[in-house]
Amino acid sequence: MLRDETILFTTEEAAAADADSVGRGIEIAALMERAGYAVAASALRHFPEARKIAVLCGPGNNGGDGYVATKVLASHGCNVAVFSWGRSSVEGAARDARERCPLPIEPISAYAPERDDLVIDALFGAGLTRPLPEPVQTLIEAVKRADASVLAVDLPTGICGNQGRMRGAAFDADVTVTFEARKPGHLLMPGRAFCGTVEVASIGMPRRIVEQHARSVSVNNPKAWQIEYPLIEANTHKYRRGHLAVFSGGRSHTGAARLAAAAGLHAGAGLVTVGVPPDALDVAAASLTAVMVRSVSSRLDVEQWLSEAKIHACVIGPGFGVGETIRDYIEVLAAKPCVIDADAITSFSSNPGQLFATFKNIGSPYILTPHEGEFARLFPDLARNDSLGKIERARLAAARSGAVVIDKGPDTVIAAPDGRCLINENAPPWLATAGSGDVLAGIAGAHLAQGMPAYEAAAAAVWLHAQAAQHAKRGMTAEDLVTAIPSALESLNPL
Prior knowledge:
By secondary structure, this protein is an alpha/beta fold. 41% of the residues lie in helices and 15% in strands. It is built from 20 helices and 17 strands. The chain has helices at 11-23, 28-46, 61-75, 92-99, 134-146, 191-195, 207-213, 255-266, 281-287, 299-308, 324-333, 343-346, 352-362, 372-378, 380-384, 390-401, 436-449, 454-472, 478-483, 485-490; strands at residues 52-57, 80-84, 105-107, 117-122, 149-153, 175-179, 197-201, 218-219, 243-247, 271-276, 292-295, 313-316, 338-340, 366-368, 404-407, 413-415, 421-423. The strands form two sheets. The protein has a ten-stranded mixed β-sheet with strand order 8-17-16-15-14-13-12-9-10-11, with helices on both faces. Helix 3 (61-75) links the parallel strand 1 and strand 2 (80-84).
């Protein structure tokens, strides 16, 4: 059976799956034996040129995996040395694996890294929740100075499995071997940058146990939202595909809204209209063709527009300007599904509760798209709380606001008010460019206009946005990103 790459284990879920496996007659020692063989196989496959393999073993099951790998590598004639931390606290299956290790075991203080070494990091793995001991941090720095290769077991020592945070220091792995499913720390920054190539090895845990326990967070990909994605059928016409309204700033600030509108049209909205102030009408009309324009200068204008036209969703914020006008507009627009972006977010920084209450009182779904700074404006207490990882803070923000929150970044997290959560992983680094967020807002708006639920609309938008950047390639601009949306949509075949 093919492994489901969308599945993630929190450290608590991984421990529960281990315990469940034991309860069903699968011994931890058997899982550990297979894990150690997988580590050894990866070392032989990726680092055949290593002159010496130094296996660093901690006191827990991660260390037990290392002792098994040591035995396997030694049996293959490799030059292996094994070093331990916390010998007195080794218990259970890890202690048994240590006792079966065929080589002398030295303390980690005895290891002097050299450039041609392969270091197998089996010290602490994903379960670390405290700062690393000073001697371990010192050894990590020595390995970095020597420029030795590193293969990490489960997760590089020093990286939190749930939050991806660094606990004082961390091994910079070339390859990481984890078991049955990845952890959030493999995807969240900065942990992702320390993992190198991540391999997921099956060690004999029944798939039903994995799927039963890996439930709290997943990887964002089409499997998460494909069932809600709008199909284009033979009888589909533009009105059935939804009408998206995008609101623009003044004459010198129409670019962001135009990007969002063009993205919305490419992403499937049947009709897109940009509402602009009268002084910007000529600018918008001259630069938009398939996208329509409408003069809007007051709350009354917005009310009249929504009463006359069948608007299915709205995007407001890109390039609009910060202030009372946008707040007035949103009080009207909250009757429709909305994407609240950029200046719309900042306009509520002094009273975020006003924004949340506006949508909660009316009941329309909405999507918030904050980057790190904007998140801190709406949720300053969550942003300041160092104990919260990105998943926790996004979930809390969604629950408080009643919005689907796209907490943007290289490790974008999408969270729903009911606790559902996804981590995105397909975004290339060149997606960080001016106007990129405007394009994302437009794609999300198009999905809302086509009737997708807000959570699936947001998740699909984040994935397609990143996929379009993959197609647009290095050096792209936001305009290139818009024109790459159709290529990204081709990735969804047979939709």
